[in-house]
């Protein structure tokens, strides 16, 4: 089922927020239960079959958690059952795409929710945290709120059971303060603006360029077009997920919940380690806590006499297991898993070499920073293209361009530069010449004109590398995540006016046809 993000964020969200505010005044004890029930109703309307599966998993897990309290000696058995049950729908969807075949005939096609991966992993944290005794006894209303809270539907962030229950078991009068409400609304507006003003225009131009090749397979892109597709695909991929995370964190603050930070300027990373730990941080925190640490503790017990060797091998084994899980979680295919294991090999190799050659400068420190970052960003862009446009052969397209059309096209508005930049390799015509080879009604028209699209992506690039991210602006990073971090946002009148103007501009650029699939 297709759901317009405008419908989701500008209709469903305000309706549930109004219901929550009304319940807090009339019956404060049932405020979160009303949010849980409203979220469940939304999921049931979108896809009742998948909702039934999720509800069954949630109710069984709740009884398993209660069973751990009554029968502590069966915790291991209940933990195994709960984790297996929580991951089964996700594994089924990853392997079969929600489709079941019998004797070659289509029997059933299930549209499992877009946020299935987040629901599944959060259920795993509930089972594991309960088995370790880190959470006090809970009520069914709190568990339903944790399991179905709608804010994390689109892209997380993943909040652990221990963290959520710790917040729910406190008095919500302080968490739902005027400051947090202003902060949540402002963060939601900024995330909404990132989606509509940054990601959508780039995605619309990239889509139009790719649509040309679908109409005419013999199309050969120019240098400027391929660079736009290559870099713009990465930017739109990042800003869409970052925007959804910002909106989710802002929405949660209005309900008295603080979700974990999900992105911390990953494209500013200088090393693969920095990039991995700043991209989808809540998922990496899950992997670190529920995959890396258990595997590391288990491998530390191997019968190797030399402690340094034993700990190094245990750490390396845990890294490989963790990145194997990361690869399978994103897409269970050989290429994706190979990419994840390649990152693990890089991390283990760099760390091992730094331990072996302690007195020498690490190789990464001798590598020119600009070159190393360019290599890293190229690798990141290739991975983004793999996820966003898996059928587009980017390497083959560059090869075809160098063979058939190596000219750099720029706008005729920059013709005054021809006296300084000239030659057979440059032509002052248009940044996107292939768009002029098809009828304008054959493709979806980009949001911005070619000239404005190039100016737009240049400004977005500058923002990406030189401006603070939204978590820094709103002071939501922990002190140990960034030194000398200070909140730059305040709930003053000027901030409210700026947020209102930004919302009006964002709404004027929205495309109601833009949607995300409930089935992923």
Strands, helices and their partners?
Blueprint lengths: L1 E3 H22 L4 H16 L1 H23 L4 H22 L2 E4 L2 E5 L6 H16 L8 H9 L12 H8 L3 H4 L2 H38 L7 H32 L17 H7 L2 H19 L7 H24 L3 H23 L6 H4 L2 H20 L5 H11 L3 E4 L14 E4 L20 H17 L3 H4 L19 H17 L5 E3 L3
Parallel strand pairs: 4-5
Antiparallel strand pairs: 1-6, 2-3
Helix pairs in contact: 1-2, 2-3, 2-6, 3-4, 3-5, 4-5, 9-10, 9-18, 9-20, 10-16, 12-13, 13-14
Main features:
mainly alpha, 6 strands, 4% strand
Condensed summary:
The chain has 520 residues and is mainly alpha-helical. The protein is built from 20 helices and 6 strands.
What is the global morphology?
globular
User: What is the subunit arrangement here?
Assistant: single chain
Q: Approximately how much beta-strand content do the residues carry? A: under 5%
Number of helices: 20
Average pLDDT, all residues: 82
Please state the CA-atom Rg, rounded to the nearest Å: 25 Å
Spatial order of the strands forming the largest sheet: 1-6
Amino-to-carboxy terminus distance: 9 Å
What's the story with the biggest beta sheet? 2 strands, antiparallel
Q: Spans with pLDDT under 50 lasting ≥5 residues? A: 100-111, 359-367, 481-487, 516-520
The ordered string of helix (H) and strand (E) elements is: EHHHHEEHHHHHHHHHHHHHEEHHHE
* SS-based class: mainly alpha
How helix-rich are the residues, as a percent range? 55-70%
Number of strands: 6
